[in-house]
Amino acid sequence: MASLHFDLETTAAGSKARAGVITTDHGKIHTPIFMPVGTVGSVKAVTQQQLKQDVNAQIILGNTYHLYLRPGTEVLEAAGGLHKFNRWDRPILTDSGGYQVFSLAANRKIKEEGVMFQSHIDGSRHLFSPESVMDIQRSIGADIIMAFDECPPYPSDYNYAKKSMELTHRWLDRCFDRLADTPDKYGYTQNLFPIVQGSTYKDLRTASCEYIASKNAAGNAIGGLSVGEPEEMMYDFTALCCDILPKEKPRYLMGVGTPWNILEGIDLGIDMFDCVMPTRNGRNGMLFTTQGVINIRNKKWASDFSPIDPGLPCEPSQYYSKAYLRHLFVADELLGLTLASIQNLSFYLWLVAEARQHIIAGDFKSWKAGFVEVVKQRL
User: Fold this and answer.
1) For residue 208, what is the domain's CATH number?
2) Same domain, 134 and 81
3) Closest Cα to residue 55, out of 341, 363, 376, 366?
4) Domain residue limits at 103
5) Which of 95, 143, 267, 271 is the catalytic position?
6) Can 177 be counted among the known catalytic residues?
7) How far apart are CA 233 and CA 238, in angstroms?
8) Domain count along the chain
9) Annotated binding site for substrate: which residue ranges?
10) Is 243 a catalytic residue?
11) What is the pLDDT of residues 278-320, one digit of tens each?
12) Which of 54, 143, 274, 309 does the annotation list as catalytic?
């Protein structure tokens, strides 16, 4: 089958924002795009049908670390891969587990071979290497798979960040070698995205971008940002990376972020985003809406019978009222978690679709300047 292809349609006037189309063997992805996070093969509280019909998700994420531990590669292979296991027939991207290993700092050991870590489930010990992570992602069968990297913490001293980046580059070479030696399992192409590292040092980020660009991969990811650094620093390093990474390949800013982070990232030339924020915040009662941010638990919504979000073309957001959704949260009803998650995911997908339309129309810059202030409002 054909490998991933990216058609760059247009770039916005006065901006580096782009509209394009990524074609995979499981369908097309119109960029810029937000990708809902389905860590263990499920976007929390939302069914696959709701992801399609209400959210309009074009691609979702899975995670190598979590799927390796549960349900395990034997089950995934017996099912025919994650697409058949979770009944999602559109594109899937899998994170390599590098960030999860990073988050297990107290229970991991990094060496040249790979990372020894303890399972958060039962404490059992496991080794992730570039080779084993590629093998696991072969078993999962995602359309886009990520290279195994080390994500240094913020802040990191220069020497550590440099050694970490160089290790990530050596691991990347091993990822490519492993993929070349192992065939696709399910009859369609898996596409490896390298990950830029280098912490918050301009020369390291530049060197990493140049190394990653030299690999001529199907797409490229920017990692190691949104890990605690100030927003402006994240934007500065995103801009640096976008100026170096090839324009003809999709660019993926990992783990970002708020609606205003996403709009700024689009402005800088990013095509792909993911973050747990819409579902995690939704389950805690924070709603992102076309009018601003709502804490649905607040008493002020108790008798507000207007739609959850009248400006969002999503049936549940138009059908149910703020008062009803608040009632569900106060009563600890599970439906509240589902409706809030659908609202936030639908908003994120609507936001990137609106950005795309304004890029094509030629007025993205002016639209963004006004709408950033809207989405930051606390209602």
Assistant:
1) 3.20.20.105
2) yes
3) 341
4) 59-275
5) 95
6) no
7) 8
8) 2
9) 95-99, 149, 197, 224
10) no
11) 999 999 999 999 999 999 999 999 999 999 999 999 999 999 9
12) 274
